Amino acid sequence: MPILIAGVTIDAHYYIFHGESFTAAVLLGVLIWENNATGTYQEQRIVHDKAGTDIYYGVEAVYKIN
Fold this sequence. Notes:
Layout: E1 6-18, E2 22-41, E3 44-63
């Protein structure tokens, strides 16, 4: 069963390079989420009721095309 979440993200970008046509940045953020789902499998009821907080990070590159 696919698990879908509802939540809020907060993140920050730190720009390493910012030129006219190219930009590079690193980002760091936090995702505060919850999941409330129910399902049935082989006549058994399955209940997912979870919440959590996850940290994420990444690298971002943007190239502008005119």
